[in-house]
Automatic annotation (TrEMBL), chains A, B:
<dbReference type="Pfam" id="PF04452">
    <property type="entry name" value="Methyltrans_RNA"/>
</dbReference>
<keyword id="KW-0963">Cytoplasm</keyword>
<dbReference type="InterPro" id="IPR029028">
    <property type="entry name" value="Alpha/beta_knot_MTases"/>
</dbReference>
<dbReference type="GO" id="GO:0005737">
    <property type="term" value="C:cytoplasm"/>
</dbReference>
<keyword id="KW-0808">Transferase</keyword>
<dbReference type="GO" id="GO:0070475">
    <property type="term" value="P:rRNA base methylation"/>
</dbReference>
<dbReference type="GO" id="GO:0070042">
    <property type="term" value="F:rRNA (uridine-N3-)-methyltransferase activity"/>
</dbReference>
<protein>
    <recommendedName>
        <fullName>Ribosomal RNA small subunit methyltransferase E</fullName>
        <ecNumber>2.1.1.193</ecNumber>
    </recommendedName>
</protein>
<comment type="function">
    <text>Specifically methylates the N3 position of the uracil ring of uridine 1498 (m3U1498) in 16S rRNA. Acts on the fully assembled 30S ribosomal subunit.</text>
</comment>
<keyword id="KW-0949">S-adenosyl-L-methionine</keyword>
<feature type="domain" description="Ribosomal RNA small subunit methyltransferase E methyltransferase">
    <location>
        <begin position="74"/>
        <end position="236"/>
    </location>
</feature>
<dbReference type="InterPro" id="IPR046886">
    <property type="entry name" value="RsmE_MTase_dom"/>
</dbReference>
<keyword id="KW-0698">rRNA processing</keyword>
<keyword id="KW-0489">Methyltransferase</keyword>
<dbReference type="InterPro" id="IPR029026">
    <property type="entry name" value="tRNA_m1G_MTases_N"/>
</dbReference>
<comment type="similarity">
    <text>Belongs to the RNA methyltransferase RsmE family.</text>
</comment>
<dbReference type="InterPro" id="IPR006700">
    <property type="entry name" value="RsmE"/>
</dbReference>
């Protein structure tokens, strides 16, 4: 927890913050070994970042005196990530990685090789997704919550949503065996599509290329989804 | 398991391989749902890669008829990674990521902010480390085992080992706040140093810069060690 992310309702007259949730109280005590007077980095959800001093800490509440929370959060990546729904444990970690890296728009997509049971996972409950996004923001000292949407059908996604998403963005389909190596250091609005374990099937690759995506690859190594997503984002931006 | 990695003693007269370990037998049955006649990618440790056909599968043994195992493994990354020893769970995942990405030389280093207890972790047992390296190779379809060495003192490492390691390599110290952004697509022998959670202390940074390392950063976001290692490798190579 490199930043304490405050919900607007946790701030009183802009100078005082109170948090009550057991997770952060425990983290302050056990990991930070926090003491009254300690200085912390705090940020308000969707807003600025600054410092505050711990005024009190109990089993029920931590109270901070706030300085100006006026530093901007780190810049986001100019990418909308379309990710084939990974298996639940991988989803959790991938959400944390991609949030820490600065992705702000994520669509979780069904494809042929996504196991249908994944869509029933408790990890897809909005509060579970939110918890992982918060961990990613706390890690990277960011305040801007990503938006995660679910696209449970491949064909409706390609026909109804993809044309609008690719408009004004460079569409990149990351898939082993594509002709072109992943470009480096591009600085333009991007739509990045990453398949499931086992990849997109040929029919899906064809539809995505037809829709205007460029196929790119990361080399001969087959990477886990969470490794591939981090590697792609680090190389592209 | 995108590749079945064979130890030399698992191969009989170059045309037949037998494996007996429960982990891979279970994986073949439960994940691959393997059947006699199925074709698999196999490779011999430190050697070539090819295909083989499953001849029999029981609770005790899988037997493969081998084609030529003569395709080369994917190229390694030209890097020796010096990684401050992460906490055990993070170490396990980091070893898998970096092996899958093609790192072949790893030194796990003690620094001021590495908790001393981490050096007592069962995760550091050679057979545990090996297990994670094997998982990384199986993932990336590689056969060349990385070498992992332990450097339990920072000062002896800097004084006795670093001068020889940096000879003929570009030394890069990844640390927040360094002057230069991580370079992209370098293709030269590199020594990459990555600190622990909380970073190197200023004394350590000074010693490493004095020893000839260039300081580089990954931007304003603070990343977990496993995310940072993947991001650095993907951007550098």
């Amino acid at each position: 927890m490199n930043l304490i992310l405050l919900a607007p309702e946790e701030i009183e007259h802009s100078r005082l913050a109170r948090i009550h949730d057991p997770r952060r109280l425990r983290h302050l005590k056990e990991i930070h070994r926090a003491r009254v007077g300690d200085r912390f980095t705090l940020g308000v959800e969707g807003g600025g970042i600054g410092h505050g001093e711990l005024m009190s800490l109990s089993d029920r509440e931590a109270c901070f005196s706030l300085g100006a929370l006026d530093a901007p959060p780190p810049p986001p990546l100019p990418v909308h990530l379309i990710l084939a729904l990974p298996r639940p444990r991988m989803l959790a970690r991938s959400l944390e990685h991609l949030t820490a890296l600065g992705v702000k728009q994520v669509t979780l997509l069904h494809t042929q090789r996504v196991e249908k049971s994944y869509w029933q996972s408790p990890e897809l409950a909005p509060e579970k997704i939110l918890a992982h996004l918060v961990l990613g923001l706390e890690q990277a000292r960011d305040t801007v919550m990503p938006t995660v949407t679910l696209a449970k059908g491949f064909r409706p996604f390609v026909e109804e949503q993809l044309p609008a998403l690719i408009e004004g963005r460079r569409g990149l389909l990351a898939h082993p065996g594509m002709a072109r190596a992943c470009p480096r250091g591009i600085n333009e609005p991007t739509l990045l599509l990453v398949g499931p374990e086992g990849g997109f099937i040929p029919f899906e690759v064809e539809r995505l290329l037809e829709a205007g995506c460029e196929g790119i690859h990361l080399g001969p190594r087959i990477l886990r989804v969470e490794t591939a997503v981090t590697a792609l984002l680090a190389r592209l931006f």
